[in-house]
Amino acid sequence: MPEFTTLPPLSIYIHIPWCVRKCPYCDFNSHVAETALPEKEYVNALLEDLEQVLPEIWGRRIMSVFIGGGTPSLFSPQAIDQLLSGIRARLQCLPGMEITLEANPGTFEQIKFNEFRAAGINRLSIGIQSFDDEKLQALGRIHDSKEALAAMETAVNAGFENINLDLMFGLPDQSQQQGMADLQTAIDLGPTHISWYQLTIEPNTLFYNQPPPLASDDAIWELQQQGQALLAKQGFDQYEISAYAKSGNQCQHNLNYWQFGDYLALGAGANGKISRADDHSIKRYWQLRQPREYLHAQPAARTSGQQLINEEERIFEFMLNALRLKRGFDMRLFEQHTGMNTAALQSPIQSAIEKNLLEQKEQWLRPTELGYRFLNDLINLFEPN
Predict the structure, then answer these.
(1) 361 Cβ partners below 8 Å, 6+ apart?
(2) Domain count, the chain
(3) Residue 89 is assigned to a structural domain of this protein
(4) Which of 115, 211, 306, 346 is the most buried (most CB within 10 A)?
């Protein structure tokens, strides 16, 4: 039977679901803000969410907060300040913990971002996606290239030192030269972190119903190889599939996800995971998705579902996340974050090693270059029967 000797780190994910426009590639829980945002009501609901879960995590410290969306930067600094103050009043937070706010270039105002910084936000994640006006228009973004460049300047002037730029490649009709030019522009702006990922066509999106013209898989793979070489040359370490960081600037919040840590879910459509020392259970839970329904529900009714993760699912979910890490992981982390013995991994690990998808050195396990390229095949070896 699984048994925790120590509980994994605990983060908070906060979802603010409104945006100015729904992008045609987006499958996130985002909704067009057609009227004034109900900031006060929503912040109160977020803190009620937190109070509902307090008995399950009492005494544990928070190591990071991530405010995602939607477009969280549509909220006022006063609302974000009230939210963060409410979290600090209810929980123990690690000194200097990472607090990330997602922001889109079309929402940047100097005074506003000065105030976000004063409220406690110490990391920005800016959704650039491209610096090419034609590509931005194809992606349905509300900003242009000038606003994208100005957003970074505004962030730096506001005192932010830890800044991530989100950038896509494999865009509609994008050449390799255009893709590399986008990446070089991002690097030249001096961020500490770049999330560089391929555009994927997801169900329930406009692009899924009306697919845009995309390059061949071979062309996209070649662009990816060139881009990764450029990022490495410029001092960006690839530590996850699409995450590249300057030394000491890995996203702590996302690392906690990928290492099968715990995280609280606050907000419409947010998902959470909680491990417990009393019964050694791991629970996933999720909140109502529709903002209107979420706001009007009683606090206890905002959680729309939950599920206990059994032993087979713990193995698969841990490996699904941890194998994304370029440098792999210490297998003792598996025991700490699942409550299980590593003996449960031996058979699929041996199979993966024989297929040259994994390599093991004492307690350290990581994908080979082949395994990282064919990651789905590697992960499938750990699927429940």
Answers:
(1) none
(2) 2
(3) yes
(4) 115
Segment 116-139 shows an average pLDDT of 95
Q: Cα-Cα-Cα-Cα dihedral of 28, 384, 3, 360, to 10°?
A: -90
103 and 126 Cβ atoms separated by less than 8 Å:
yes
To which residue do tokens 């024989």 refer?
Answer: 354
Are the C-beta atoms of 274 and 265 separated by less than 8 Å? no
Angle 97-37-135 from CA coordinates, rounded to 5°: 75
53 and 148 in a common domain: yes
- Asked if residues 42 and 17 have their Cβ atoms less than 8 Å apart, the reply is no
How many Å apart are CA 153 and CA 58, to the nearest integer? 41
Neighbours of 133 (CB within 10 A): 14
Residue 195 domain flag: yes
CA distance 219 to 33: 37
Q: Which amino acid is located at 372 in the chain?
A: Y
> What is the pLDDT, as a whole number, of residue 258?
97
Rounded Cα–Cα distance for residues 76 and 341 (Å)? 47
**Using CA atoms, how far apart are residues 353 and 343, in angstroms rounded to an integer?**
16
Same domain (yes/no): 244, 322: no
Domain holding 231: CATH number?
A: 3.20.20.70
Residue 264, domain member (yes or no): no
Residues 53 and 198 occupy one common structural domain: yes
Q: Give 32 or 302, the one with higher predicted confidence.
A: 302
In a domain, 103, yes or no: yes
pLDDT bin (cut points 50, 70, 90) of residue 213 is confident
Three-class DSSP category at 202: coil
pTM greater than the 0.70 cutoff: yes
Sign of dihedral through CA atoms 298, 87, 122, 249? Answer: negative
pLDDT digits (tens, 9 = 90+) for 332-341: 999 999 999 9
Confidence grade of residue 109 (pLDDT, cut at 50, 70, 90) = confident
Do residue 129 and residue 217 come from a single domain?
A: yes
β-pair partners for 361: 364
In angstroms and rounded to an integer, the radius of gyration of the C-alpha atoms of the chain is 21
Are residues 344 and 233 part of one domain?
no
Cα–Cα distance between 284 and 300 in angstroms, integer? 16
Q: List the domain range (segments joined by +) for residue 353.
A: 312-385
Residue 353: predicted pLDDT: 97
- Report the alpha-carbon distance of residue 160 to residue 170 in Å, rounded: 29
Q: Are residues 232 and 318 part of one domain? A: no
